């Protein structure tokens, strides 16, 4: 390994390692919900699987817009512009989005009655969605402040908060779902209340930290919001395209039987745990490439891009090996339901192929965020997931009776095509930069 490669890898890891810790913590909060729900009952797991699938599709719109904060402020810092003054505008932006998203989730709840889910699941789905709708404020505050601090490469404390929240969430889930002493067993409602408390804790913990480490003056700049929307809309739509693709599978198969929604949630939980590592590397790439782009340093931009891709794909190759080698062990961590295990294991073999290309595409997404060409990510995701993955998966699932596995064949195909599109566009973009330079 060359000295140069080690240098750029170390620079990326300085940012990525705490983010990996935090990202794993964040997804382990969701995994904790799946773990507790699965041990409570398969119906509880099915209900929260469908509910989270729907709310995720709605809430990712705002999360995608908030994700534009760190690449934008990183570019400002690379251009030697003041970035700290955008603290209060960032909070205002996130709170405005949270109001819109909360009402969108609440407005969707009456529609659950018409989506033909199993009748026994409907009340639980609606109950979970109602409570978690009001958790949006805490969740978006946390996401916005995490992005703000990440732009300054302050990543340790925000991610320590997330790791602590994993244990807080598990403790609250156990007490509220199963009951303890005078506290009755609340089932699905207990899971929702735990999520509500944890998200507000995470948001306010970062808010207090920011006021302790920095001094802020109120500042208003309408152009900042326009820039966030310009960069964030493609990011948001790209995330929504992917999230809706994954979560629509839970919704579609959940109408066939709740156990398929439970299996999809279980498989997505497993893949998302491993995905948090390349996602953190992608965030680090976006920050470093964004800084290099703002400073017009094409050499660093290319080096961070290449090293980041190698790190991301390398990790996912290891992850794919584990999924293909120990599928039953991994599934049994969450449930002992034999029917659920029988559905999930074949999907993990397909997932192991998907993993490798998922690692490549998320690294490429980080590069495009850094160079502020987020429209490429949106168009590529739309083509791959909605013109290829969902139609192909639907045919394989229902015409060829592959059910959930058919949809995952479609997702694997989409990931391969997505990588080919983004790689070709990245090569063109870099050549254009070099010519302009």
What characteristics describe this protein?
437 residues, mainly alpha, 15 helices, globular
- The number of distinct β-strands equals 0
- Count of alpha/pi helices: 15
The structural class is: mainly alpha
Q: Characterize the biggest β-sheet.
A: none
Q: Regions with pLDDT < 50 over 5+ consecutive residues?
A: none
Q: What is the beta-strand fraction?
A: under 5%
Number of domains: 1
Oligomer: single chain
Radius of gyration: 21 Å
Please report the distance between the alpha carbons of the first and last residues. 29 Å
User: Would you tell me the overall average pLDDT?
Assistant: 87
Report on this model:
The chain is an all-alpha fold and 437 residues long. The protein has one domain. Helices cover 85% and strands 0% of the residues. The radius of gyration is 21 Å and the shape is globular. The model has no long low-confidence stretch (mean pLDDT 87).
Helix-strand layout with pairing:
Elements: H1 3-40, H2 42-66, H3 69-78, H4 87-108, H5 122-133, H6 136-151, H7 156-178, H8 188-213, H9 222-256, H10 258-294, H11 298-325, H12 327-332, H13 338-370, H14 374-399, H15 404-436
Quick overview of this protein structure:
This protein is mainly alpha-helical and 437 residues long.
């Amino acid at each position: 390994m060359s000295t140069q490669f080690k240098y750029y890898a170390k620079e990326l890891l300085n940012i990525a390692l705490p983010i990996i810790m935090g990202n794993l913590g964040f997804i382990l909060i969701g995994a904790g919900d799946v773990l507790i729900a699965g041990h409570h009952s398969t119906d509880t797991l099915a209900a929260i699987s469908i509910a989270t699938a729907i709310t995720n599709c709605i809430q990712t719109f705002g999360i995608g817009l908030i994700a534009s904060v760190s690449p934008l402020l990183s570019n400002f810092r690379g251009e030697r512009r003041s970035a700290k003054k955008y603290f209060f505008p960032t909070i205002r932006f996130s709170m405005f989005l949270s109001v819109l998203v909360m009402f969108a989730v609440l407005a969707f709840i009456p529609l659950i009655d018409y989506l033909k889910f199993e009748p026994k699941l409907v009340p639980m789905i609606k109950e979970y969605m109602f409570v978690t709708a009001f958790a949006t404020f805490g969740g978006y505050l946390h996401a916005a402040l995490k992005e703000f601090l990440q732009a300054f490469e302050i990543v340790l404390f925000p991610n320590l908060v997330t790791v602590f929240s994993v244990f807080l969430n598990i403790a609250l889930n156990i007490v509220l779902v199963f009951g303890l002493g005078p506290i009755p067993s609340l089932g699905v409602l207990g899971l929702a209340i735990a999520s509500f408390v944890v998200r507000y804790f995470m948001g306010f913990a970062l808010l207090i930290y920011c006021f302790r480490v920095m001094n802020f003056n109120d500042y208003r700049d309408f152009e900042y919001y326009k820039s966030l929307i310009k960069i964030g809309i493609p990011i948001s739509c790209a995330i929504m395209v992917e999230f809706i693709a994954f979560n629509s599978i839970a919704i579609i198969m959940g109408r066939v039987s709740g156990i398929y929604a439970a299996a999809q949630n279980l498989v997505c939980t497993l893949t998302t745990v491993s995905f948090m590592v390349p996602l953190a590397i992608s965030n680090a790439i976006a920050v470093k490439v964004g800084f290099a782009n703002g400073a017009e340093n094409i050499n660093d931009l290319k080096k961070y891009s290449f090293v980041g891709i190698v790190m991301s794909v390398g990790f996912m190759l290891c992850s794919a090996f584990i999924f293909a080698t120990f599928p039953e062990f991994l599934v049994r961590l969450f449930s002992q339901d034999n029917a659920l295990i029988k559905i999930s294991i074949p999907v993990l073999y397909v997932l192991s192929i998907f993993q490798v290309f998922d690692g490549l595409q998320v690294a490429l997404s980080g590069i495009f965020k850094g160079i502020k060409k987020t429209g490429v990510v949106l168009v590529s995701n739309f083509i791959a997931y909605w013109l290829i993955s969902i139609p192909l998966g639907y045919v394989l699932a229902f015409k060829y009776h592959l059910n959930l596995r058919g949809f995952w064949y479609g997702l694997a195909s989409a990931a391969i095509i997505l990588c080919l599109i983004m790689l070709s566009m990245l090569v063109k973009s870099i050549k254009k930069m070099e010519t302009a330079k």
